[in-house]
Each structure stands twice: as structure tokens, then as C-alpha cells.
TrEMBL record, chains A, B, C, D:
<keyword id="KW-0032">Aminotransferase</keyword>
<dbReference type="InterPro" id="IPR015424">
    <property type="entry name" value="PyrdxlP-dep_Trfase"/>
</dbReference>
<dbReference type="GO" id="GO:0019265">
    <property type="term" value="P:glycine biosynthetic process, by transamination of glyoxylate"/>
</dbReference>
<keyword id="KW-0663">Pyridoxal phosphate</keyword>
<keyword id="KW-0670">Pyruvate</keyword>
<dbReference type="GO" id="GO:0004760">
    <property type="term" value="F:L-serine-pyruvate transaminase activity"/>
</dbReference>
<comment type="similarity">
    <text>Belongs to the class-V pyridoxal-phosphate-dependent aminotransferase family.</text>
</comment>
<protein>
    <submittedName>
        <fullName>Serine-pyruvate aminotransferase/archaeal aspartate aminotransferase</fullName>
    </submittedName>
</protein>
<dbReference type="InterPro" id="IPR020578">
    <property type="entry name" value="Aminotrans_V_PyrdxlP_BS"/>
</dbReference>
<feature type="domain" description="Aminotransferase class V">
    <location>
        <begin position="66"/>
        <end position="358"/>
    </location>
</feature>
<dbReference type="GO" id="GO:0008453">
    <property type="term" value="F:alanine-glyoxylate transaminase activity"/>
</dbReference>
<dbReference type="InterPro" id="IPR000192">
    <property type="entry name" value="Aminotrans_V_dom"/>
</dbReference>
<dbReference type="InterPro" id="IPR015421">
    <property type="entry name" value="PyrdxlP-dep_Trfase_major"/>
</dbReference>
<dbReference type="Pfam" id="PF00266">
    <property type="entry name" value="Aminotran_5"/>
</dbReference>
<keyword id="KW-0808">Transferase</keyword>
<dbReference type="InterPro" id="IPR015422">
    <property type="entry name" value="PyrdxlP-dep_Trfase_small"/>
</dbReference>
<dbReference type="InterPro" id="IPR024169">
    <property type="entry name" value="SP_NH2Trfase/AEP_transaminase"/>
</dbReference>
């Protein structure tokens, strides 16, 4: 809102949106970010409840619905256990520690910043960690992972389905197939994939699929989501190296009770966020998960076609590495920070680059959640104009035209 | 929301948005209509109050603020009297009857359906009405009006600033200058202009400027707004031919009291809508009225350029007839009804044509309120694709490219 | 919201709620007013839609649902024609003029300010008007009306089901039975009754039942609602004395089209308000209309019991005049204006008295819409404390105790 | 909302509210719970933003404002470091682990379930833990704590300001004074106190004060809040035994950057919740923190007076153990589970008892956040009626009368 909070200058906000000869009204901004993303108001409005507590039957019921739906989202069946916990994607990652014991060995397959995060996280615990790393823009090949688990015995292998820092997609299904028999636990970070990429947890025989609310599910941030195989659940015990709040053992009975609509408590769940989540899940059900993935695919393709036609390069190095949700954009002359600042004045907000190897050379477009071809076209149009103004060699009008042809 | 009301099939809504291989989430639709238009959520949210009555001080205060702001919107000074009444633009038109007496003679300057509406309305009262009519797409020339008021004595001349049925703009300032000395009352229907076109009520010496909430002001429908000159106010009396509810004499003291923050009642005002109105006015103040008009002008120009480049014609026949708010689009082969039905499936809603002389040949794009260049680009992109599919000869990609160039 | 609009001092709002040693947060206020009333947030939230126009299929569908539901609310069948028009209760009253022709004669049965309003309104038209008046707090007896229509030939008799200015209920069913054969049209103003009192339009053979959105239906103000018998509909014609906007003839086809989910236009309907209305109707359906009336009855009884036990008198003079929706409270010593000002500081807002014969002697409590026994208890508690402070002889604690016993 | 999510039966909700001869509309329920509580709609609505990401300047600004305000809430000065992290109160408790090293020794002062939680939590880490326990309804005396820290060397002492399971308040200021020189770190769990009890972090020389969003601050759940002294901050290091996500060292720079309005990232913050938090903080500022505490005190006192007068006992054993936020209610005959189920049908939701020593003997009333005397009266009234119906010996009407007298 334009009206600011005490001590915050609302005029600043207004100035920030002053464009080239006109002003973009504030709530009409497109948030083409990596999460949170532009959120459908039906989702936001579902949390507008002044009277729901964690023991309210209406909360218990939507929690039950959400847990069940989460299974479907990752392609799991009744034998898998879903968890919705307070926190974020990183909290969900740390929840995985609940399945590890002192001395376990983990192989981290890393395509960027969020792959590397597994190492930093696991290093806080008494477990051993090895990392297989791809160059920026590329992904670790399935055969490399296969070789690594043949050379060495690992309890767990972690992969990042879509690496949010570069927009690169790992072929997790193929990797899983190759290593399934050689490791105890296969973990996939689906933070930028669940809801927008094909996810077949059961078919791939993955043990943990995790994600966060604010990504392709199009919900505000505040929850980490995990689904565990029976094998993974069987490892939740007092022997694990996990702490307390993010220890899934403490949440197990709570989730099981809530799923059958029985009140249960360990720590306070983000009640209002779960109402929003249930509404998002309902909208996903109505759209159809396949349709939703297809929509993301088309939008992503339109954006990439548009970017190439306007004359900029994409971080992901090969077509099979392209993701449906995030695209890194490499610049030749313009400064990414200036681009981000300038596009906001025309009603589009993009995400900064975070991969240290590409620092100062790229920015990111998130295209997930409730995103439409209309958002893609508008984003490309703003980007063309802004990049041109900032000295990047751009074929003005060609990006939007190419995207338009791709959508027709 | 996807969830329907009792007896309404929510599936219908969902189907309606099924596009070409993807589905547009429902609340991401662009409403490029002639009113209501796409509304900023900050405006809508301002009405979310469960506890305000018409005697609540907080209502009285925002009513006071809104009345004062309305004067600024039309370029009037303190000597002018603003009115905010329940109803719509047509209710505001009928409010004008409060200044007429039995036997008065009115000249209606009509450029289309809403010009003609004055005649139908005034015919319900004991006053005489003559009409000066333009061909569809054109406007009545100032010199024609001047001649008419020289040939015959009229109490009142009514004009329509922007004719919503065709998107044609009347040069009301010039007309007013030419006829000012020859008629008692000059009335301008500013329904599709106030907030988006230059309006200088005092400079033009206009006696009544009226508008509606749901047009360029970007508020939901539910209120008619009028500003009256002292001369017009002096004619509010028991001798007028007006009825009761829309008789401005009954509202005069109420408006005067509310403006000085004193509670007052004649009939119940749309309390929640006035909160939304005040928020919209506040946003307009922050944007700056001049900036807002400039924004509308740029968007309108981009849309017209895009339409011409994709290969369709515009209803308004000459550039000086173009308006900032509504553009009629003429089709050669496609059926307008099919176009309207089809664009919705891609997330854009447009308005049907209503001018009887052009029936079945055109549709309208509304571009007012909180509209941005991003909305224009997205609308043109959808339109190009849909028209192409429906057999209209279209240069695919050329419309969006031309608009893009116009915005850079 | 505490944050004010430009030019409005938010501090004022804050001060206004400063109570006796504590401050009541602003949105927790109880609006025990005569309309608008405390509104359920589910109803308000249903209007939070930034993308619906009057030709949007989703609007057309909820309008269809609302029209059908309106018939049920007044106990009419398919042969009756419902209307939802922009405006208010007074606009709905003036809509009745659409059934009158030059020279028709109307008998107004008046129990107070809103009864008298019929005369002021009808006097603007070329029809004759007689008035039968009750003393303040009383109602015109059925036999008096019967006698009047026997003595003189009237085209129309109007009654006010619950007189909002005094809270007095007219036995409209009995009156209708006595006069049915002697007049052409029986009209009931159900503004403070529909949704909270028993209304059997068909059984009573009433020709027009009208109401407003912001009363017992618990919707924001902005619409007038009417249901007409076939006989009333047959009188909608060009010969009527009605004007244009409130001329039901102009709305007839629109309502018929919208009811069968066909788009139709005469003037712009309050689109967002209709979404709220449909939600309210849905909630009424789920509660059950009979349950809803029973809830109003219990709350009203609790309030009256509480008032009497604390030691104040009620305006309505006899039990059979009591209404389910409005109670006038007579004061012995305290000034009503002071009471209204003071109760707000403790989080309850009441309505001023408006009957000229009781000026300065009473105020009103509205108890309609989504009102609960909890609201009644809280209101009585605040009232006891405030009246005591302002010098009224009050048995502190006795009012709430008596209400409590009445609810158990 | 009555309309349910897919797979959830909305009828269930409706039935749940069917009372004794009437139905309570759903969103009018009073949530007198221990958190989340009844939330002011101004707070909820502040989160209704579809376009804010964690790098959006508007988020960074409200985060800056919120961090600064958090210091004021606990009575700290600029030398203290505030943290707002995703999670809940338990997450904030585990954040305290960031200040502990292998082998540290902690004394837990426990008055109930949430005191005991410190032990369970700390047991997951390589630190030693001793517990000083009070009987249910009582608190550990300051002199007992003093003696314990004299007998044994502890790195840290933890206290629970208000024990949510029993509503008992610990005199934390006095304890802190007695032990300040004898321990390195004093930690207070202010989950049910900050915003409603006097908190003077600096005066007491406490090192960590923590709380959660959904308690007396009146915000939805989803964030843990902590303020650390310089001494506590100096212990954030790689040597701590903490994990990753809840390791405050990882959040330190993020909080420092955000406070000076510089974008910063470690894990995704609950962006929308922070907007709600900032609005709540703004409302608290306007109310005045002292006024707010006084309001809680008066409401709590009214509730206790009412409970005693109706004839039930309170869990807290002595007046100096009473808290402003939670009251445990002991039953003689009725089953607490039945009481909770039944009060909901009359529009009030209360919290179950959780102290194992009192299992089946009590329930809890939460009275915090935006709670008013009106809520207290309504709650007592419902409770009286329900307890009476369920066979508890109750003086019907005496509870509400006594509360009423206490408020006047």
C-alpha cells in the first residue's frame, strides 16, 4: 500500500515506481521472482481469517486436505508420509537431517548455490559429506553420480531438481534409476520444481522430496513441505543427529493425526498460511496438475525464445538443462543491479543473480506459480526497453514478437 | 473465486478460462472493459470494514475528504458543489434533472448511445429536447453546436466528453467557449473522461460535470458523482421537475454537512464504496492527476498503434476524436462475440460494441483506471493471436512490436 | 484502519476509541446500528475481485443466483419478479412509482419517519396521497386501514413492516388480508424486516415487497431490492409517472435476462456488491431462513429484557409492536448524543434517534444481520456502564444478568 | 468461510456452530485461545499483497521498521540485536542454542509444559541440563533459583515469563536481579508475555528475550522473535552446537542489513507475515505499549473475577502468579473436552488444558492480542451457560455481573 508504516516514508515507494513519463500503480506490479512470486488474490484472501486457532476444527480439516494433496503433487502414494512444517525450503532441507545418524556419509550433487547449501548445512552435524559439482549453467551428469556411488558407499545422495541460482534442471529421474540400488536414501530438493515440473516420486523411488510454499505452488513463504518414503520414515528415531524443532520425529504423529482430522500439537503451525495453501491446492486441482506443468513449460519457452531474439544469452548451457521455473539472463554491457532497479519503475520485479562465479554478470527471471503468457509478454517488453536504455545491444521489439509467435 | 455460490457451477468458470493448451488462473484476468475496469487491490481492500455505519466518524471523515477531492478532479474551485450519490453514471445524469423546470428546453449533443440516452431520460420529464447527432465514429463539431444555440433558445446543453459506445472524444472546452453566453446551463457527461482526460470545469465555465465511480477513477460501480456550479446549485428547488431520490436538492445539505465532517442523512450512502473511493483518490493524489492523464494517453496511443499495425481499424474516425479511455475496434471477418468469448480464455476481458449502427461489426477496449503499458502489450498480444485464429487478416507479432516501439 | 486518508487526521480516530483506562482496537468495534450493521468478513471478502465487469460471466451467474434467492427471502414463487437495482432503500421505494399512473391515489400507513417518507416521495409525482398516522411507538391498527380503504378508493396502500425510526412492527399480514380485495396494489417496505422477520409475500398477497442490502441481510449499502407480483409487473409501462433510472420498466428485461444467465444492460449494476450479496444469501441459505429469524428474535428479546432490567424504557409501546431488528431506548436524564459518543469509546456503536416527536429523548439499537447473543451481552454491558456514568438511574449488572438468563 | 475446500465437507463447519436454538455466523467467533488469537482485520489485511518478494524494497523497509520496534517491545536499547526468523516460539527457543557450546551447563526454571520443553530441546545437544520445577499452578521462587546458581555453576538459566500451560507468571525481573552476577546468560521465554506484560529487558539485564508472533502481539503464527544482548551476540560463532537454519549466526548479518534497509538473504523470510507484523506494531505504537498492557490487565482481572463469581477455580494458585494473558480454569464436574466443544456452538473458542498433572481437569482461556472487555463479558456469558448445561455448579448471571462491576 502507498500508505506507509510508522517511520517508513511512503513517498519512497511512490518514487520507486516513477517510470519514463508515467507511474505504475503499486499493486499492479508483476513479481517475476524466484519466490515469493506473484500470488493469486484468491490464495491470499483464503488466509483472511481472524478466528482460527490450531485446535479449530476448520484448521484441522484444511490441514488434512493439504497433507493428502501434497502426496499427489509429488506423485507419491498412501505409503508415503507428508509433512508441512513452519519455516522455509531451507528448514525442509534441515528436516532431512532427521533421517541421518552419526557417521553417515552423504553425496551432494550440486549445480549451484542451493546444491552447495547441503554441504554447509550437513557440516553442522556429525556426518561426512562429499560434493559433485557442475560448472555454472550446467548440471552433474547422471553417469557421474552413478560412478561416484559405485566408487564409495553413501548413505544418502541429495540432488536439486531445479537449481534456483542458475535455473538449471537436473534429470533426477534418470539419476535415481541409476543409483537406486546403491544408496540407502535418495533426497531431491524440489524447491523450484514441485508444481511446475514433472515429479514422480514413487516411479523414481525417491525417499525424500521437499519443497517450499512460496515457489511454484504460488503461496506466501512460511512453510517447508516434505514427503518421505517408508524407508525414510523408518529412520526417524532418537538416534538421529537432528535437533528439536526441525526433527521430523517430533512432527510425525502430529501429521498423522491431522491427516485423519484429529487435533494434534508439537509446535504452532502457520495456521493462516495453511488456509492459503489449501486454496492454492484447490486451484491446482481444478487447473489439473498436468495442465499446470504445461502452462509453466509454455511460459518458460516463450520467455527463453523472447530473450534469445532480443539478443541476450541464457545461463543454462544446454536445452535439456532448461527449467520451467527459473531463467538466468547473462548481460554483455549493462549492470544487473541497474536492470533490476529500472524494471521495477515499469512494473516488473526480477531477481538478482546469486551464483558467485557469475557475480555481476546475470540476473534471474522467475516464472512460476500463477504465471501466464500475458506476464511473459509484459516482462519481455519491459526488459527490452530497459536493457536498450542501459546500453545492452538489443533488437527492440524482436523479443516480444518472437514470444508472441511462440505462444500462437 | 473458483468456488461457486450455491446453484452456480464453479466448473463453468474453470472451463471458461481453458485456453489453447493452458489455463489462465482466474484472478489473473485483465479486465480491459469500459467499467468496471481492473481494480487495484489497495482500492478494494479499503472497503473491507465490518464496522462502519453512515454515522461513524471515520465514514464522515472519508466522505469529507472525497467530496473535496472530487472538486480537484474536475478542475473546480470552492464555489462549486460536489455530490456523491448512490447509483451509477445514469443516476448522475438523472440528477441533472434537479436543475430543470417544467417547459425548459434542452439541446443534446450526441455522439452515440450515451448521448442519445439524455433524450430518452429527459423525455420522462415535462421538458423539450432537441438532439444534434454525429455519425458513428465522429463527433458533433463545435460550430454546429454554436449554430444550434444561436438558432434556438435552450436552457441547457448536454455533451458527452468521451462517448463510451464509440470511444470518441468531444472537444468540450471549445464547445463550451462558443456557447457559454447563449445558454443557461452547460452540462458535461464525463463518465469516461474524469480521471483520464484533461477536465477544466472552471476554465470551461461548465455548470455540471458528472461521472461514475467505475470508470477512469478505477473504483467499483455504485456511485454517481456530480459537481455543480453556483448557477446550477441556485436552480435546485421545489419547482424542479425532479423526483425524490435523485433530486439533488434533497442531497445538498447532506453534502455540505459531510464536507465539514458533520454527520447528515437523506438516504443511505454506499459507505464501503466511499472508503474505496477515498483510497483511489489518495492514490490519484500520489500519482499526480497530470501524471495519471499522461499515463492514460500513452497507454491509449500504444493500443491504437498496436491495433493499426496488426491490421484492424479503429471506430474513431479522426485522430482528434481519439480518447484516452475507450477504443472501438472494427472487424473485417471475425465475429465480435466470438472474439470476446475467446480472449477471455487467454486472460483478457474486453467489452462488446453497443452502437446499433455498428452492430456485429466492432468491439471495445477499455483502457482506464490503473491500466499500464504492460496491460496494453498483453492485451494486444492476446488480441493478435485470437483474431488470427478467428480468420481476421492479422500481421502476427507486428501489433505488439509497434506498441513496444511506441512505449520506448 | 488507523492509517488515515490524506487530509484526515488518523490520530482523531485513535482518540475516539480511548476508553476508561484502556483503548479499544479499532476493527473490534460492534456496529449495533440500523444499517449498515456489523458485517461478516466472509461477505465483505466476496467483493474483493479486481477483474469482474458487468458482462463477465461470473457476475451474470451470481446475479442470477441472487435474483432467485431474493424470491425465497420474501416468500414469493416463480410468478413474482425480483429486481436488484443500484441505490438504497429509498431508491427501491421510488421504484414503486413505476407502477403508478397520473391521478392514482395512494394511502400511506405511517408509523414514523420512513412511513412519512412515502408522502414526501409521492408528492413529487402527479398522484394523490393520504396518510394514516400512528403515535410514536405505536402502529396503525389493521382495522383503521380497513376502514380507510372502505371509505375511499385507493389504487395503492403502502405499509412499513418495521419502522426503522422507532423499531415498531406493523402486522402487515393481517392488514393485507383485510384490504386485499379493496385496493389494486399493496406495497410493503420491508427495509428493516426482510431476513429477520417472517415475510410471506405470496400468502399475504402483497404486490410489492422491497428492502435494502445493508439491513437485516447484512450486506454493505448500495442496492435496493424489490419483488413484484404479476399484477404489479403488468403496471410497468410508458404510462407510468416514473422517471428513468428508477423506472422498473427499464430494468425488467435486464432482470429477466440475468436470471437466466444472459448478459444484459440498462445501467451499471454494483457488480462487487452483488458478489457480496450472493455470499450473504449463501450464508443465509446455510443458516436456514427460519433459524435466522429465530436468532434475530432471541437476540431482540435478550436486548429488551436487558434494557428493562437495567432500568430504561423502550420506545415501542406494546409487546406486539416489538420488532426483531430495531429497539428504541428512551432516556430519563442522559443526553442521547452523549451516550452515542461515549459507547463508541468502549467499542460499541449505536444509532441516533430520528423521530422528530422524540427528539433528544431516545437513541436506537440495531440488532440485525449477523448479530449474536454475544453481541447483545457486550452491548448491554457497555450501555449499562456508560448510562451509569452519564447520570441515568441504572441497576449496574442487572441488565447483563437478565439478558444472560434470557439466553440460557 | 462456509464454502469448504475440496474434500472438506462445509456442512460440518455449519453444524459445528449450531447452538441452542440459533446458529452463530462463522466469522463472528471469538477466539479466546492461547495463540493464534482473535486477530484484528487491519493486521490480516496488511498481508494481502500479491507482489512482494524478499528483495522488494517495500518488504525491506517494513522489516527494518519491525526489527527496530521489536527492541522497544522488550525494553531494550540500540546495543541489543533483534531477530525475526521463520518458525514459531519453539523455533525461537532453539535459536538460543546458537549461544551454547559443547559442555555448557543450563539451569531450566520450569513452571509447566513449556518450561519442561527447554529440557527436551536442549537434550538434543551436547550440553548439560538441570531443571527446577514448580508444582502445577505455582512458580519457582526467586530464592530457589538464586540458591541453585550458587550451588552449581551454570552457563545459562532459562525462565518462562508466563507459562502458557497454566497461566502462571514468573517474577522474572526479581529472579534476574538475584542471579545476574552468577551466570553468563539469562534467557526469558516471553512467548505469552511480550506485548501484554511489563518487559524490561535492559533493566533486568536479561540476555535473550524471545517470543512468537501469534500470542499477545496478535499476529498470525509463522515467526519466532528474539532480542539478544551484546554478550549473547558475542557467543554466536562456529563453535556453537547449533544447526543451520535456526543458527542465529547465519541470520545476524541479514538482520543487521535489513535494519538499515539493505536487502539481504539467508533463508526466505515470511514476507507477508512481516507486513502483518509491521501493521500490528504500528497499531501497538498508536495504542501505546503501556495502554496495551493495562488493557490486558483489566481484561484478565475481569475474567478472573467473573470466573470466581460464577463458581469455578483458577489454576494459578496465588494472586502474584496471575498473568495478563492466560487463565486456567479448573472444573469440578464437567468434562473440559465437552466444554470446549460446546462453547464453540455459541461462538467462543477456548483452549484445551495441556499440563499432564491436570489432565482432564481444566481448560484454558487466552486473553491476549486485541482482546477487549466486550470479549471478556461475552466469553463469561457463554461459559456460564455452557457449564450450567454440563452440570457444573454455577451461579448463572453472577459471573457476568461481577465482571461488569469490575469493568465499571
Amino acid at each position: 500500500m502507498l500508505i506507509g508504516y510508522l517511520g517508513v516514508q511512503p513517498e519512497d515507494h511512490c518514487n520507486r515506481f516513477k517510470g519514463r513519463g508515467y507511474i505504475i500503480p503499486m499493486t499492479r506490479k508483476l513479481l517475476m521472482h524466484v519466490g515469493p512470486v506473484t500470488i493469486d488474490y484468491d490464495v491470499l484472501v483464503a488466509g483472511l481469517r481472524g478466528d482460527v486457532g490450531f485446535t479449530s476444527q476448520e484448521f484441522i480439516d484444511v490441514m488434512s486436505f493439504s497433507l493428502k494433496f501434497l502426496r499427489k503433487l509429488v506423485g507419491a502414494d498412501e505409503s508415503y508420509q507428508p509433512f508441512i512444517i513452519p519455516g522455509s525450503g531451507t528448514a525442509a532441507m534441515e528436516g532431512v537431517v532427521s533421517t541421518l545418524r552419526r557417521g553417515d556419509k552423504v553425496l551432494v550433487v550440486s549445480n549451484g548455490v542451493f546444491g552447495d547449501r547441503w554441504k554447509a548445512l550437513l557440516n553442522r552435524y556429525p556426518v561426512a559429506v562429499d560434493v559433485l559439482k557442475a560448472n555454472p549453467g550446467d548440471y552433474v551428469k547422471p553417469e557421474e553420480v552413478e560412478k561416484a556411488v559405485e566408487d564409495e558407499k553413501y548413505t544418502m545422495v541429495t540432488m536439486t531438481h531445479v537449481e534456483t541460482s542458475t535455473g538449471v534442471r537436473e534429470p533426477v529421474g534418470e539419476v535415481a534409476k541409476r543409483i537406486r540400488d546403491k544408496v540407502e536414501l535418495i533426497v531431491v530438493d524440489g524447491v523450484s520444481s514441485v508444481g511446475a515440473e514433472v515429479v514422480k516420486m514413487k516411479d523414481y523411488q525417491v525417499d525424500v522430496y521437499l519443497t517450499a510454499s512460496q515457489k511454484a505452488l504460488g503461496i506466501p513463504p512460511g512453510a517447508g513441505l516434505l514427503v518421505l518414503s517408508e524407508r525414510a520414515v523408518s529412520r526417524l528415531s532418537d538416534e538421529s543427529v537432528a535437533g528439536y524443532f526441525l526433527n521430523l520425529k517430533n512432527w510425525l504423529d502430529v501429521m498423522r493425526n491431522l491427516e485423519v482430522s484429529k487435533g494434534s500439537y508439537f509446535a504452532t503451525l502457520p495456521v493462516h498460511l495453511v488456509f492459503m495453501m489449501a486454496k492454492a491446492f484447490e486451484l491446482i486441482e481444478r487447473e489439473g496438475l498436468e495442465n499446470r506443468i504445461k502452462r509453466h513449460e509454455r511460459v518458460a519457452q516463450g520467455i527463453r525464445t523472447g530473450l534469445e531474439s532480443m539478443g541476450v544469452d541464457i545461463v543454462a548451457k544446454r536445452p535439456e538443462a532448461y527449467s520451467n521455473t527459473v531463467t538466468g539472463v547473462l548481460l554483455k554491457k549493462a549492470n544487473p543491479a541497474d536492470v533490476l532497479k529500472e524494471v521495477v519503475t515499469e512494473g516488473v520485479e526480477l531477481a538478482p543473480g546469486v551464483h558467485p562465479a557469475l557475480a555481476g554478470k546475470y540476473f534471474r527471471i522467475g516464472h512460476m506459480g500463477w504465471v501466464t503468457p500475458n506476464d511473459a509478454i509484459a516482462t519481455l517488453a519491459v526488459l527490452e526497453r530497459v536493457l536498450k536504455r542501459l546500453g545492452e545491444p538489443i533488437n527492440l521489439g524482436e523479443g516480444v514478437r518472437a514470444a508472441q509467435l511462440s505462444f500462437s
